[in-house]
Amino acid sequence: MRLILTCLGFAIATLAVLAGISSAGSGRFASKEELGAALFHDKNLSKNRSQACATCHMPEIGFADRHDTHKGNAVSLGDDAKSFGDRNAPSVTYAAFSPPFHRDAKGAYIGGQFWDGRAKGLEEQAAGPPLNPIEMGMSDDKAVAARITENPDYLTAFRTFFGNQALKDSNGIFRAATEAIAAFERTRAFAPFDSRYDRYLRGEEKFTEQEELGRTLFFSTQFTSCNLCHDLKGPDGRLETSTFTSHKYFNIGVPANREARRMNGMKPDFVDIGLAANPEVDGDPLQRGKFKVPNLRNVAITAPYMHNGVFSDLRTVILFYNKYNSKKKSRQINPETGERWADPEVPANLATKELETGPGLDDKRVDALVAFLKTLTDKRYEGLLK
Description:
The chain is mainly alpha-helical and 386 residues long. It folds into two domains: 2-93 and 121-185, Cytochrome Bc1 Complex, Chain D, domain 2 (Orthogonal Bundle); 196-385, Cytochrome c-like domain (Cytochrome Bc1 Complex, Chain D, domain 2), CATH 1.10.760. It has helices at 2-19, 32-41, 53-56, 122-126, 128-131, 141-148, 152-162, 170-185, 196-201, 209-219, 258-264, 314-322, 352-355, 363-374; strands spanning 102-103, 109-110, 249-250, 291-292, 333-334, 339-340. The strands form three sheets. A two-stranded antiparallel ribbon has the order 1-2. A two-stranded antiparallel ribbon has the order 3-4. The two termini are 38 Å apart.
């Protein structure tokens, strides 16, 4: 275990600097956040000791999974080296800004974690993958706790940050681990707000003519409907804190990812009902096919796209939305397949109002929107845009 932690040392130290965490030294952890960083990277917390949170949420590529890792497959490979999921692993950057899962005054579902909001917050989300049989594959919280207690440095840190009470049973150990991981995910390493867009807002940089056109289109209510779902302002009402999501749920007509289904062996008649599968929603038919609006920070470097990773290119996503507004035959063709856009996996409950607002866009405007979305890339990832 000490050897493994030594191998993780460089990654954790780097993230600690980015997160504003001081180095502990001597195998100890200086803060709950630094403990969370170690747990986030620890492959021993999976059944075969081959997978960590960071395996599918890689810090070097926006805390998302690498699109080409599994021969182009859009979903992640499990710890057993043979199981695939059915949904795309989203970026964890800025995930801390999602409010707890709830219903607003109008009855709309908002917030939570995962594509269907089934985890209320980061702590509950962190508890999911270790116990998922096709992800990290641990049998229960006792198995996770046993792996944690193998490491004396973890035990010291748990006593320091959570008290002896946390070590009295496996549930307490597991719960403390999820709290530490969530604390790490709330640090600046995940939400630096230092993209070219942020620097533009602060007057530190200027946009190119194309980027400025894209920004104008994105913010427009006349030419696009982007901001009907991707809020322009943060929870405090400022542009500077926007993560470009309403945290709401919509069915936008995404087709099934047949290649992912071939890889994971799901039955041909399986339908991902999205939000309706959330236990709190209890199968409400009006919520079938709805998925959470993702934040757009780092969107340009975290392909593939949509909840099932069915699209590989960001421009394809813009064209997919544009098909609802354009009468051109060419706009009814998926550029990645050369065929007509596939039918929605769930044809009911389409967000017709949001999807059909605004005119069709020409190539110049489509490219401008892509250029603007690239400006939302955190500074540490800007090199990936090339």
